[in-house]
Design brief:
The complex is a heterodimer.
Chain A (H helix, E strand, L loop, with lengths): L1 H11 L14 E3 L6 H10 L4 H15 L23 E3 L13 H9 L13 E7 L2 E5 L2 H6 L3 E4 H7 L1 H7 L10 H9 L4 E5 L8 E7 L10 E6 L4 E9 L6 E4 L2 E6 L4 E8 L11 E12 L5 E8 L4 E4 L2 E4 L5 E10 L4 E10 L5 E10 L4 E10 L7 E10 L5 E10 L5 E10 L2 H9 L4 H12 L1 H4 L4 H14 L6
Parallel strand pairs in A: 3-7, 6-8, 7-9, 8-11, 9-12, 10-13, 11-13, 12-14, 13-15, 13-16, 14-17, 15-18, 16-18, 17-19, 18-20, 19-21, 20-22, 21-23
Antiparallel strand pairs in A: 1-2, 3-4, 5-6
Chain B lengths: L1 E10 L2 E11 L4 E5 L6 H9 L5 E9 L2 E2 L5 H6 L2 E4 L6 E5 H15 L7 H14 L4 H5 L1 E2 L5 H15 L3 E5 L7 H14 L5 E5 L13 E6 L2 E6 L1 H10 L2 H11 L1
Parallel strand pairs in B: 3-10, 3-11, 6-9, 9-10
Antiparallel strand pairs in B: 1-2, 1-4, 4-5, 7-8, 11-12
The chains are: A alpha/beta, B alpha/beta.
The complex binds adenosine-5'-diphosphate (ADP) and magnesium ion.
């Protein structure tokens, strides 16, 4: 990573949100607003089987009975759910037969974002599912993966091609009724990725999904499901960006992970939705539910997230540690600048014996932003010898921002050992002057110090993402000091 | 190389430097001595461009440029180096990475290509030998958990890597045992050329047995009250600062 550092530092000074462009492409859209008809429209567009429509309608009816949660430490104007477009698909032959058939305009869009849909061009083995607005436009390396039995495709395709797996696992970790946004997502989700790693298979390449919001006034509701059977392994990456727009856009995703006996799933996110402008105008509302279950003994699920975007983030990737000796990890860097608000953390639910969890959260606040860590560690009565270690560090840039920590601990078994450490620090003028004296300007010094602060988390990311994430940290803090 | 003319500076309305005059030419080593609180570190900080200090009077010319007009980072890239009395810690940033950034920022400023990994490594190996510093230390977070001596050696190592025109050493000797002192001095002596210069700030004359200065100045209450050769340092060692304080206080009374 040392090599790349210089390029990263160079870029620090160069740009603001550089993914803010709009692709001019005709879209096939649902009428504005949400009703039973909207749900039927989406399901029909996707030519879904009856069971899927039934699932959606049930979720929709439940949603109608629920209220938006008010407990997160964030403030935003009321969302008008009737003012959102729930389905928007770029007009092209959906699911082109081969990667060559992808609309060149879309291909260009992803290339501009640094995502190549050309299999030959990929040097390192990363398979990509590219999702724009409500639909997946391409998935690479499908054939190669299928040779070892790995299924990697869009959720729409999975519903058609692998209904037995979807019926078995969809909603098995995050029920539609879990919370307001999961009910909404379950009713109107339009696409996302499905990964299935069969027993004993180590997925031969990184799998990744790249989400792009393009259309105006739309919400994005994607759905991801990852199933790793006994002794399977997969590392999955997720990235996202959106154009700069003055109005807020809603993104309410659901991610579910099932890890069976001795399986391991690593899930990494670099979240870079448009954060809004310097005055706090526009930006994505990122209300996401991510949860994994270690259903078998010795299973392991790791969440790693680098959250730099969105005007509001509300997200708690969690692990249910059901299998004995299973392990849950959560590594997070959340950066907030200007008027961004983040309320993020994790839940580690220890059910099995000898289960272990580790939480490392690094919050970086600048400008007038608010950054909260909210985490729950729960140890059930039968979870003998459960272990948790939590480390929550906050770094403040300037004195108009806020950092908050809300750790919740519920222990019902007295053999449990739960440790929580928290620190808050400020970037010191001494540190910046020291860098200045070595010829490093303030902007670059901040990037250096912040990346150092976040290092333990960044080290968890796959190489390709780590470099990208370092740049992002630097860029999102631009202009925050001096 | 460095021409300081009637430099006056204050912090929080408190006047610290009260008219410093100093002329340093290439190839020279100047020592600044003086009792605690006399303004030695303040002078070093003002030259390096620390924002807390306000320059109220005077001029400083460095390599033909108006030093006070330059930002701290540009001063550094023009070839001014300060070995800090209290080096800061930067958690998570390895010393190697830090120095690499610094070296390449300077090269960019001078219109040079960044060093590639191999060149940088070669350079580093060479300079490591000079200050007898270990690779393992350089892989660790900058100054984090370093002993006092390790921090000071790391400063000299950075100096060696950045190859400055003028290096200001602020009490680099304090807190060093005799071996560390010898290593630091040895580093300075090897880096000395006819084109660069050193301003060595010290409280004790001990260091000057190893780094032999061309000129010695005594700073007291924000002024240079005596200048001489290394004999002046010897005299101070024997008599202590009190005799100068007494003399000066009497002159000023
Ligand atoms: N940040 C500061 N705020 C107020 N006074 C300061 C500050 N830094 C230094 N001083 C004062 O300036 C004077 C000179 O300090 P300094 O330059 O550190 O002396 P020296 O390095 O010679 O021991 C002292 O009286 C000290 O108390
Ligand atoms: Mg001092």
């Amino acid at each position: 990573m040392h090599e790349e550092n210089d390029d990263i530092l160079e870029q620090v000074t160069s740009s603001e949100y550089k993914y803010g462009f709009v692709t001019d492409i005709e879209a096939d859209e649902a009428p504005r607003g949400l009703s039973e008809d909207t749900v039927r429209f989406i399901s029909a567009k996707k030519n879904e089987p009856a069971w899927m429509l039934a699932y959606r309608l049930k979720a929709y009816k439940h949603w109608l009975t629920m209220e938006e949660p008010k407990w997160p430490n964030v403030e935003y104007p009321p969302i008008n759910y009737q003012d959102i477009i729930y389905y928007s698909a770029p007009k092209q032959k959906i699911a082109p037969d081969s990667l060559d058939d992808i609309d060149p305009e879309l291909r260009k869009t992803f290339e501009k974002l640094g995502i190549s849909l050309n299999e030959q061009k990929r040097l390192s083995g990363v398979a990509v599912d590219a999702v724009i607005d409500s639909v997946s436009v391409a998935t690479t390396f499908k054939e190669e993966l299928s040779k070892v039995g790995v299924i990697f495709c869009s959720m729409s395709e999975a519903i058609q091609e692998h209904p037995e797996l979807i019926q078995k696992y969809l909603g098995s970790v995050v029920p539609a009724t879990d919370n307001y946004f999961t009910a909404l997502n379950s009713a109107v989700f339009s696409d996302g990725s499905f990964c299935f790693i069969p027993k004993g298979v180590r997925c031969p390449m990184e799998l990744s999904t790249y989400f792009r919001i393009n259309a105006a006034n739309t919400g994005q509701f994607e759905r991801t499901l990852i199933v790793a059977e006994d002794e399977a392994y997969v590392s999955y990456l997720e990235g996202c960006t959106a154009p700069m727009r003055d109005e807020n856009q809603l993104h309410a995703a659901v991610v579910e992970i099932v890890a069976m006996e001795k399986a391991e799933v690593k899930y990494s996110t670099v979240q870079n939705w448009y954060p809004g402008d310097k005055e706090g105008k526009g930006g994505i509302f990122n209300f996401v539910t991510k949860r994994g279950i270690c259903s078998g003994a010795h299973a392991k699920i790791s969440w790693t997230q680098v959250e730099t975007g969105s005007s509001i983030t509300w997200k708690y990737p969690s692990v249910i540690l059901k299998g004995d000796y299973s392990i849950g990890e959560f590594y997070s860097v959340a950066v907030t600048n200007n008027f961004q608000q983040a309320d993020t953390g994790t839940k580690m639910i220890h059910l099995g014996k000898n289960t272990k969890s580790r939480i490392v959260s690094k919050g970086i606040s600048a400008g007038k932003s608010q950054n909260s860590y909210r985490g729950l560690v729960s140890v059930a009565k039968n979870a003998g010898n459960a272990r948790n270690f939590s480390q929550c560090d906050s770094l403040l840039l300037g004195d108009k921002c806020g950092a908050h920590t809300f750790p919740y601990i519920e222990v019902k078994n007295n053999t449990a050992v739960v440790e929580h450490e928290a620190t808050t620090s400020k970037i010191g003028e001494d540190q910046i002057f020291y860098c200045n004296q070595r010829g490093i300007d303030t902007e670059t010094a901040v990037a250096l110090i912040v990346n150092g602060f976040a290092k333990e988390v960044m080290n968890q990311l796959p190489m390709e993402f780590a470099v990208e994430a370092q740049k992002l940290l630097a860029i999102s803090l631009e202009g925050s000091v001096g | 190389m460095l021409k300081i003319n009637n430099l006056q500076a204050s912090i929080e309305e408190k006047e610290i430097l009260k008219g410093i005059n100093l002329d340093i030419k290439p190839g020279e080593i100047h020592a600044i001595m003086g009792p605690n609180g006399s303004g030695k570190s303040t002078l070093a900080s003002v030259l390096a461009g620390r924002a807390d200090y306000e320059v109220t009077e005077g001029t400083v010319e460095f390599m033909g440029k108006d030093l006070l007009e330059l930002s701290p980072e540009d001063r550094a890239k023009e070839g001014l180096f300060l070995a800090f009395q209290y080096p800061v810690e930067i958690p998570g940033v390895s010393t190697t990475n830090f120095i690499k950034s610094a070296v390449n920022e300077k090269r960019k400023y001078l219109g040079l290509e960044p060093l590639d990994a191999a060149q940088f490594l070669r350079n580093m190996k060479e300079k490591m030998k000079l200050v007898e510093i270990d690779q393992s230390l350089l892989s660790r977070s900058l100054n984090e958990g370093f002993s006092g001596g390790e921090k000071k050696r790391n400063e000299i190592f950075q100096m060696a890597m950045l190859d400055p025109k003028l290096a200001i050493l602020d009490e680099t000797d304090s807190g060093l045992d005799i071996d560390a002192l010898r290593i630091v001095a040895n580093g300075v002596n090897q880096l000395r050329t006819k084109d660069n210069a050193f301003l060595v700030v010290t409280h004790y004359q001990r260091l000057l047995d190893y780094i032999v200065p061309d000129f010695v100045h005594v700073l007291y209450k924000g002024r240079i009250v005596r200048s001489g050769t290394k004999e002046l340092a010897k005299e101070l060692e024997v008599k202590g600062y009190d005799f100068i304080k007494a003399e000066v206080d009497q002159e000023m009374a």
